[in-house]
Design brief:
The protein contains eight helices and seven strands; from the N terminus they run αααββααααβββββα. By secondary structure, it is an alpha+beta fold. Helix 2 crosses helix 3 (about 35-45). The protein is elongated. It comes from Tunturiibacter gelidiferens. Pfam families: HTH_11, WYL.
Length: about 240
């Protein structure tokens, strides 16, 4: 039995409302009590409202019980494809979160939809997104959200390098590379930087205040496209 199927069955049994001991669950699922303890702990960590403890028994809190998730086949395909793209090209924190989200979705899907997961043959290989880049993506995203200035060394495509200090605005994915849109203090203008060409990235302690003409909406207006439309990053200046 797949682990996802086992988690789903644990939740389904606990939905019955009766207190279930680890031994009772282990007998129903034909696994060890140790496996049940581990699975229940993982379900609790993921947010499933399971009450109880080892040696006493477990039950699902009825006031927070969720009905089975119902998706169309196309919706499920879109969700799984999106999750696989995050797994391949997302930051380290996003990858961990999407793995947990998929487990939670699998655990409460009806059987016919869970079987559908294995037949989705759309993948997003991410061998170019190595772990250091995933961690850098998280770091830069936190800087964008927290409005923290960032300093780094940047190597342009022609081999020239320079030290930059920027006000990070947003991150964009161009179907193969992540870029940081920022207000560059050196150029006194908007610039877009490929994160795989950044080195010695340092998020500075100071928080910057967004000024008119230097905000994300100003960058988008200058680029001439809404932020969700892919186009050549060269249109707004690389580095």
């Amino acid at each position: 039995m797949r682990r996802a199927d086992r988690l789903f069955r644990i939740v389904r049994v606990l939905r019955g409302g009766r207190l279930q001991t680890a031994r009772m669950l282990a007998e129903k699922l034909e696994v060890s009590e140790r496996t049940i303890y581990r699975d229940v702990r993982d379900l609790q960590i993921s947010g499933m409202p399971i009450e109880g403890e080892a040696g006493v028994g477990y039950t699902l809190r009825r006031d927070m019980d969720l009905p089975p998730l119902m998706f169309t086949r196309d919706e499920l395909t879109a969700l799984v494809l999106g999750a696989r793209m995050v797994q391949a090209w997302g930051g380290a924190a996003s990858v961990a979160s999407v793995d947990q989200a998929l487990q939670r979705i699998e655990a409460v899907l009806p059987a016919d939809l869970r079987e559908r997961l294995d037949s989705i043959l759309m993948y997003a290989p991410g061998h170019r997104m190595v772990q250091p880049l995933k961690e850098r993506l998280d770091l830069l995203h936190d800087a964008c959200v927290g409005r923290r200035a960032v300093a780094f060394c940047y190597a342009k495509e022609d081999g020239q390098s320079s030290e930059r200090e920027v006000r990070p605005l947003a991150l964009y994915f161009w179907g193969g590379a992540w870029t940081l849109a920022a207000w560059c203090e050196l150029r006194n203008d908007f610039r877009v930087f490929r994160i795989d060409r950044m080195q010695e990235v340092d998020v500075l302690g100071r928080e910057f205040v967004q000024k008119k003409g230097q905000r994300l909406e100003d960058f988008v207006k200058q680029a001439g496209k809404p932020p969700y439309v892919s186009e050549s990053a060269a249109a707004v200046g690389i580095g």
